[in-house]
Design goal:
With 145 residues, the chain is mostly helical. The chain contains six helices and three strands, in the order H-H-E-H-H-E-E-H-H.
């Protein structure tokens, strides 16, 4: 068997293809209906679910798979729209927090309803057992938190 025919290459390719298609369709729908790019939605979700509605820039970058420069630019853009704000750390001036604002929470609430409805359509043919198995497998791939 040639290396290119390795079944794991095919499996990974399927993951990439599915992610790309879902990102295009769901992300496009979210932006069209809510004016919120998908990556902004993900940032708002991560912040809203975090303790105190804030995360360090480093932790946020890891969670949304952005470099430190990428997350800095993203938070700069989101700050100008009033969805997030920066907050310095009281004990370490090198650390900055991204914090969700009240406006960010309002926009997230609207967008979450739209995104949830779209996801229900995508996963309509999956049983609860299928979804639980998918979650377990994805958690295994993701590795320890």
């Amino acid at each position: 068997m040639a290396t290119v025919d390795d079944p794991l290459i095919t499996t990974f390719g399927r993951l990439v293809e599915v992610y790309s298609r879902l990102e295009h369709s769901l992300g496009g729908a979210l932006e069209a209906r809510c004016g919120l790019p998908h990556v902004w939605f993900e940032v708002l979700v991560r912040l809203a679910r975090s303790d105190g509605g804030r995360l360090t820039m480093g932790a946020l970058g890891e969670q949304v798979a952005l470099t430190s420069g990428g997350v800095t630019r993203l938070i700069d853009r989101m700050t100008t729209t009033g969805l997030v704000e920066r907050q310095p750390c009281d004990t370490d001036r090198r650390i900055q927090f991204a914090v969700i604002t009240d406006e960010g929470r309002c926009r997230l609430d609207v967008a979450a309803k739209v995104h949830s409805a779209n996801l229900r359509e995508v996963f309509a043919g999956f049983s609860q057992r299928d979804l639980a198995a998918l979650d377990r497998l994805l958690d295994r791939l993701r590795g320890p938190a």
